[in-house]
Amino acid sequence: MPKTKNAMLRYQILDRLLSDRYHNYSLDDLTEAVCEELAEIDPKTNGITRRSIEKDIAFLEFENKPMAEIERYTVDSYNREKQRTTRKHCLRYADQGFSIFNQDMSDEERELLSGALSLLGHFEGLPNLDQLEALRWKVKLKPRKNKVISLSRNPIEKSNILGQLFNTIIHKQVIRLTYHRFKEPEDTEFVVNPYLLKEFNRRWYLICKDYDSDTVRNLAIDRVVKVEQLPSYKYEDPDGNVCKRYDEIVGVTYLSDNPIQRIVFWVSDVSDDYVITKPIHLSQRLLKGKEEEELRQLHPSLSGGSFFSIECRRNYELIRELIALGPELVVLSPDDIIEEIGGKIKNMVMRYCLQL
To answer: Mind listing the pLDDT tens digit for each residue in 22-41?
Structure first.
């Protein structure tokens, strides 16, 4: 074994990369990936040369027990900067599922895995769910007689699409989506980096970023017609704000031109416990003390109940949530949200009056 302090860590990283059936790694790709992971663990590391990775692979292949049979193959690779396709020479384990670091599982780990498999069973369409029982028997897990967790499920017509997208996210694959918008005759194609599957109001969405721009999209999964994996395209990890920014909104519609606003509202005694236990937004606060006293003086017609505040960006889903409780919730500020809700209520009253 080479007398290098990071040798065993490099072997573990390479072992995982060579086991990957969802990416095509050249020697340069393996070198870059190992350097990146080592830098995350120890920022002071000086990196690893391509020659060192060649030696590590030779050790895994010929000197290690069990020895690893490594397959050399070529694929077409798309270069975005040069906008052309070239041949790339790649490496991986010849035996799918091979690893030199297989370890026995403890009883506690078995129980955790058993619970995880039961939870995954709620999501129809996830990849390889037909193999869950085979995996359970392989690691000698007894099936649970009773459920521990029960989730409400909204069946989607194309559950296989959800499974494909789940797979592409966890394996970091660029994809081409064929997408059909409502009321448009033609399909649209997007090449994207998929980042997050988000459920809101019984509908699933894919949060993704265009491959050739910084445009972040949320695409309803029930409108996805086809998913095509593009292994020759290099995946880009999300920056810290892509997924975190959804903490700034209710739902999935992110409008960057709308600033974060502090929204104050009153909820009647009929519904305040409901709103306390099921917040409209994660920033929700129950206003007490001086803040509550000032609001009661400003709004004497609102007797009883409780006052709340949230801080988020205005969008369609927010307005809908604020309207959902009808007269049991009254928005007190800011004015633009009061006006929007007031306009919608007036239109609703007019439509109902026409039916009377």
So the answer is: 889 999 999 999 998 888 88
